[in-house]
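Researcher: Sequence of Bacterial Ig-like domain-containing protein follows. Predict its structure.
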Amino acid sequence: MSSTDSQPVTHAYFDSSAVFEPADGPGTVLITGTATNATDIANIEISDGGTPLASTGGFQSSNAKWGVIATLPAGKHILTATVTELTGASYTINSPYRLVTGIQNQPYVYQELDENSSGVFTRISNYDGSGTLVSQTAVALNGDAAAPLSIAFDPTATFAGSTEALLTGTTSAYGSTSAIEIFDGSAASTVDPASGALLSSAKPLGYATLGTDGTWSFDAHVAPGTHVFTAVAMGVSGQVASSQSSFTITAGVVGSPYVYQEVDHGASGGVAATTSYAADGSVVGRSNNGGPTINGGSSTGAVIRSAYDDVMTGDGTGDTTFLFRHGFGQDEVTNFQYLSAAQSPTGIEHDVLSLPQSVFSTLAQVMHHTTTALDGSAVIHLSRTDTIKLDGVTKADLITHPNVFRFHG
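Model: Prediction complete. Tokens:
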């Protein structure tokens, strides 16, 4: 709080949250608060980054609630209130939140970022175009400090076309991440390691879509050739973090049985696996640490069909098909085996998820509609009411083992 030389005799506060009122026009927000000794207040002026928005005028009662309606343009907003008393004394207070309006390409249009007294973000609330709360996430805290901004790729990409890949990953400080930009190029050529400043030698591809669970995704359309990717996360407070994909892709291959190839690298930088894809997205071949294996085939074991809101359990022997049609509700699959016989320590074949072609026909489409539960398990959303939770199986597990999926008519 700042003031003039005269000491204020009143106290004014913002309420802990604003209220979005888009029914009165896009970006319309109700900003409220309280004031004590309010009869000594001549005016409270609300400003957005120094630009006046609205004023309250004076008050008739000593302890008063105040509120103003303001229309905010698309962008980020830091609100302040300048309180002017009848004596001429004035002081400024800061809102305990930041607002973001006009958000595009997300399941929400408005955001409120709540801050504690130290300016550390503690919670993010997302609202749709009608002003209805659609999700709310607490920002990870370590003591009284927000978790450092970070960004990571999932271990592999997902084939989405001969020159297209679905890139996915996570950002640990979701809620303090304002944007993730994807580059075609290595991290070393994209971000200055000393200052975090963005350099220009890598090709910018666009901005990722942030999920409400801290995951992100991006459809990368690239030219024929070999590519490595960098994701750069930008925090709401200006901090920058970056990560390079642990894989490279070779897109638009001609004259081969495959049109797209991905080379995955381990922690040491050595080649861990190479996977080749045909034009229809099927796996032509896969080599693991130099030992070639061919993935594919169809499930010939037991078939378990979902009825409604089921818990479906594999028997642990593999080669079981879990078949889903429309209207099955919220299902959960336990003991799902995703490793192939060549990868499994017991030599059993993987289980299969059979999904309707009317909803999905490629792995990329499935991954677009897969989120992560609080326990790390993958959740596939076929619709707003039909979901499949795979206990103990992560989204990364599914991406790296695409042959667990079948698509039926």
